[in-house]
């Protein structure tokens, strides 16, 4: 199961949601897209495709689109490895004309689950993204802890 939600500042379900946001209807010219899937490696290509599409629509150059796509893939794969069996992988994309910020989160499989930052995959992720950070939040209300990765990718060469 995959859910995609886009926040545009309009009333949800309005016909104009299909056209996408206009700059005046978004916060600081940004729009937000959220994708939720079962935390499964088989569903990562869906999230990767959303990342590519969003970057292309924001006029990122081809290298930046490719880098973002691979970074999202690596971040999601890393999180799926530490996710609880019934966890949801939630990815939120904050899209601006010059950069995309991605936040991916899963409920961890055990209380001391952490994202390892001393692996080859983590080094690749740091190379592909312009900024990367890990988060770990303790569980509340009977829910287990959450583990997340935030990454930023700029659109490419800035005009000179």
Oligomer: single chain
Q: Uncertain spans, ≥5 residues at pLDDT below 50?
A: 5-27
Instruction: Characterize the overall form.
Output: globular
Strand arrangement, major sheet: 1-2-3-4-6-5
Largest sheet: 6 strands, antiparallel
Question: How many distinct beta strands?
Answer: 6
Name the helix and strand elements from N-terminus to C-terminus, one letter apiece: EEHHEEHEE
Helix percent band: 25-40%
**Number of helices in the DSSP assignment:** 3
Strand content: 25-35%
N-to-C CA distance: 44 Å
By helix and strand content, what is the structural category?
alpha+beta
Mean pLDDT: 81
Radius of gyration: 16 Å
Organism: Pseudonocardia xinjiangensis
Protein name: ATP-binding protein
Keywords: ATP-binding, Nucleotide-binding
Pfam families: HATPase_c_2
